[in-house]
Write a structure and sequence with these properties.
The structure holds two protein chains of two kinds.
Chain A: H1 3-29, H2 37-53, H3 58-81, H4 87-106, E1 110-112, H5 119-127, H6 131-154, H7 157-167, H8 169-174, H9 179-205, E2 207-209, H10 216-231, H11 236-259, H12 272-299
Antiparallel strand pairs in A: 1-2
Chain B: E1 2-11, E2 19-29, E3 34-39, H1 45-53, E4 60-65, E5 68-69, H2 75-78, E6 82-85, H3 99-107, H4 121-132, H5 151-164, E7 169-173, H6 181-198, E8 202-205, H7 209-214, E9 218-223, E10 226-232, H8 233-237, H9 241-250, H10 259-263
Parallel strand pairs in B: 3-8, 3-9, 6-7, 7-8
Antiparallel strand pairs in B: 1-2, 1-4, 4-5, 9-10
Helix pairs in contact in B: 3-5, 5-6
The chains are: A mainly alpha, B alpha/beta.
Bound molecules: adenosine-5'-triphosphate (ATP) and magnesium ion.
Chain lengths: 300, 264
């Protein structure tokens, strides 16, 4: 793999890392499997593309994208808590609805950002670094800031109520917390991060596409699980950093797979979804299989 | 302190498996009362406590706490007034949170939760002091995950958490039933200490007749969704297990309910 491909993979790892933190928040903290992300990532990208092409600041684009993502997450939360729709189904409904909304936002299925000022251009201009270095650095800094903010939040009174809602909802209700509101807020916050990530992805890749969100949840889960396996999850702070770095590892692994040349057979980008799905299945079942093997050996 | 008037509760109303769990139950709990609640399986004791706590809406009747009508309040809002301990020791605490985080969660019961630090320095000193009263050594394990503790230790923590913010009423639903006999006695002693020292108004459901007679100043017996006995003061103090069984049969406890069922 070339150095160029490596820095590109690291850049992607950090950009998508903010999405992975959002997935961590719903999947691990709230215990709420949320597929909204497949729609809120392109939502953020679409808003970012429209805001930037109409001549506004790329930073403003990220903020607006996050706001829209928050609303999308709230919709899923409300469908689940107030209308009693199963969380998976509620999130699929929002995801599907977002497909239409995203096309409405852009006025067409995709928008190019070629020649437009992005956060990377601005950062490269400020720092004097080459864009190929400025991008991973900028997104790395943003990823770390996201980790720190989330870490700080989860240790506030409200953040602890979010943790408790995922851990023991009956207990936290008896302690006076409205778990419906916490879920609506938590899924909102998660999707705000995902949409912000989407806004940055669009700026990093130079385009927004309505189909770019397909498989976001699976990539997010794969990253969370890789991070946990490699870096551990003994404390909340550690688990958050593990999620971000898991995202980097995941993208580097994909870049490696793509650069492999096995003679007649080589991996193409269209194989990635299959590989990722297999990876998640493996990661989800590995602990159980390991336990079973150990158990057998112990009794042999 | 609590006034329940003609509270009626159906489960699965209008369906084939309809259950009338509470039939026009009226009960006034006075400030400082320590009421033990007994009755056979399915008599409606848990349903009554849950109705007070707002776990589900009731079909008829009204409930007020401290002269406020709370009949339409959701559970989390009523929690400002109520401390609760459940039968299952795992229900009262968050397993993945640390001991100090659990206590901090409980110390904000009924208050707004904002962006202030969840566990503060001043909290820690207070938690340490309170935990040391349990005599379980938990005061030195503030940052241990609560899931590591035994059922008895977790139930002791839940007792502490239910009273950390003084509740207007403490609701205990067979909170020692899932513990081994020795731990059950310890938790019951802790309960008695806390209730006395803080002069807490308390409702305690139990299947242990001896417990029901020994503790509290008032005893209420449920049967088939009704209160069939309500004794207090001298009369309660003079009560024996045999008297209770006789009263039970006298007051509508029909033959189909055996003494064992009443005893639990
Ligand atoms: N969620 C529910 N759905 C349907 N029926 C219920 C539900 N909860 C309780 N019941 C029924 O309501 C009646 C009263 O139950 P409750 O749990 O209040 O009894 P209890 O006095 O607490 O009994 P135990 O001593 O066994 O705990 C029972 O017939 C029970 O089957
Ligand atoms: Mg019960």
């Amino acid at each position: 793999m070339t150095l160029y491909a490596l820095t590109g993979a690291v850049e992607q790892g950090f950009v998508y890392g903010i999405m992975v933190l959002g997935v961590y928040l719903t999947f691990r903290v709230l215990d709420f499997p949320d597929l909204t992300v497949d729609g809120s990532l392109p939502l953020g990208a679409a808003i970012s593309a429209v805001v930037i092409s109409s001549g506004h600041s790329p930073w403003l684009a990220c903020v607006l994208a996050a706001g829209a993502g928050f609303l999308a997450g709230m919709v899923t939360g409300i469908l689940n808590t107030k209308l009693k729709i199963l969380h998976l189904l509620a999130s699929i409904l929002t995801m599907i609805a977002l497909y239409s909304i995203n096309i409405r936002i852009m006025g067409r299925p995709n928008t190019s950002l070629l020649g437009q000022q992005t956060v990377v251009d601005q950062f490269a201009g400020l720092s004097g670094l080459a864009p190929s270095l400025a991008a991973p650095l900028l997104f790395g800094i943003m990823g770390c800031i996201a980790v720190l903010v989330l870490f700080w939040f989860l240790r506030t009174e409200l953040g602890m109520a979010v943790l408790a809602t995922g851990d023991n909802p009956r207990m936290i209700t008896a302690q006076g917390v409205n778990t419906h509101n916490v879920i609506i807020f938590g899924v909102g916050l998660s999707n705000a991060m995902v949409a912000c990530s989407g806004a940055l992805v669009a700026q990093s890749q130079g385009a927004a596409d309505v189909n770019m969100g397909v498989g976001t949840i699976v990539a997010g889960l794969a990253s969370v699980i890789i991070g946990e396996t490699v870096f551990g999850d003994r404390s909340v702070g550690r688990a958050l950093f593990a999620a971000l770095l898991g995202s980097v590892l995941y993208r580097v692994a994909i870049a490696l797979a793509l650069s492999m040349d096995l003679g007649i057979f080589s991996v193409t980008p269209s194989d990635l979804k299959l590989i990722t799905a297999l990876l998640v299945v493996l990661a989800l079942t590995a602990p159980r299989i390991k336990k079973r093997l150990l158990f057998k050996r112990g009794h042999a | 302190m609590i006034r329940a008037r003609h509270v009626t509760k159906f489960f699965n109303r209008g369906e084939v498996n309809e259950v009338l769990a509470l039939r026009e139950v009226s009960l006034t709990v006075n400030e400082g009362d320590f009421i033990t609640v007994i009755g056979s399986n399915g008599a409606g004791k848990s349903t009554f406590l849950n109705a007070l706590a707002g776990v589900f809406p009731i079909e008829e009747g009204s409930i007020s706490v401290a002269d406020q009508d709370v009949t339409t309040w959701p559970e989390h809002r009523r929690a400002a007034f109520l401390g609760r301990v459940f039968q299952d020791p795992l229900l009262g605490t968050c397993p993945h949170a640390t001991i100090e985080q659990n206590l901090a969660l409980a110390s904000r019961r009924g208050k707004r939760r904002g962006l202030k630090r969840g566990v503060r320095k001043a909290d820690r000193a207070l938690f340490r002091e309170k935990l040391s009263m349990l005599g379980l050594g938990l005061e030195d394990r503030l940052t241990d995950a609560t899931g590591l503790l035994s059922g008895g230790q977790r139930q002791a923590m839940t007792m502490l958490m239910a009273t950390l913010v003084r509740p207007k009423v403490l609701l205990l639903d067979e909170h020692t039933a899932a513990l081994d006999p020795k731990t059950a006695v310890q938790i019951m002693q802790l309960t008695d200490e806390l209730v006395r020292s803080e002069r807490l108004t308390t409702l305690m459901v139990t299947h242990n007749m001896a417990q029901a007679i020994e503790y509290g100043n008032r005893l209420v017996m449920f049967h088939q969704g009704r209160v069939i006995l309500d004794v207090s003061g001298e009369e309660k103090a003079g009560l024996g297990i045999q008297d209770l069984l006789e009263r039970f049969h006298e007051l509508g406890g029909d033959g189909c309910v055996s003494d064992r069922a009443l005893l639990g």
